[in-house]
# Entry
Amino acid sequence: MSTNPDNALAQPVGTTLERYIMRKQSEFAYATGELSQLLRDIALAGKIINREVNRAGLSELKGAFGTENIQGEQQQKLDVVANIRFIRALKNGGQACAVLSEEEDEIIQTGNDQGKYVVAMDPLDGSANIDVNVPIGTIFSIYRRISPVGSPATREDFLQGGRKQVAAGYVLYGSSTMLVYTTGHGVVGFTYEHSLGEFFLSHPELHIPQDGKIFSCNEGHWFDYPEFVRTYLMECKRKGYNARYVGSLVADYHRSLLMGGVYMYPPTAKKPQGKLRLLYECYPLAFIVEQAGGVAVAGADNTAVLDIVPTDCHQRSPLFVGSARMVEQIVAGAKQEATTTVKAS
# Structure
């Protein structure tokens, strides 16, 4: 330990995102700088959205915009702002040749045909919570394009499957703003320091606990859930587990990632294919949780989310994601129920 008295007056502020990316660039599959720059572009857009979210109540950015997106959901003003900001940042950065957004029907060509990457994103998850000051977030997924460099991107660039992601992450706008991402070499988290305008490394190695006592789901859909889901939830309650659900996917997922738990959006009678979008919600969160030691499956058949073959850019999927033992218990209960049903018939 240093005895230099100056150290007490000027403590280190930590490792910035910029410095961390430069140190880790050699771990990227294609270490020529493009992916590093792409992550910086996403971080910059995250800083801008953080500003917009923080001042939304004073700048008339709250409330509905008055239109629906491709998902049939009412767009909020901040949805539109976030979509514009991220697309603009990715266009200006030059590394992404195309963007797939929850807020747009079609693939957005950036004009950067020499770019080697495509980005799928949910610019602002949790729109229903914008007006009530509940944490919301951005989710993103990055692929190395398979179409020829120099030509416009195609649907096939986005439909490669979850195992082909080269990076994925999210930005959480809450009591603090965090950027969490993986490039396939573990999961790291950065916290935004407002006065310096920088993301600093705060969670150098994120590992989800193998078990937990938190379950997150919308119990308002109780009577529409499959029987195996209701059975598991009843068991959670008998064990005294904690129900935690705010309706922002990023916020509920982030809690489970740090503390141990499971997030569920099961299929329902009204949405048998699930509600969450596969490419820019389920895939990136599944990639992150697997890198952190957790599990993400799409349903009772124990299909790993990352193994689902995509057929549509806005495809939906059920999601059970979180601590390995909790997800495994859900799947085991579903199998037992299926076996009992077969024997009874």
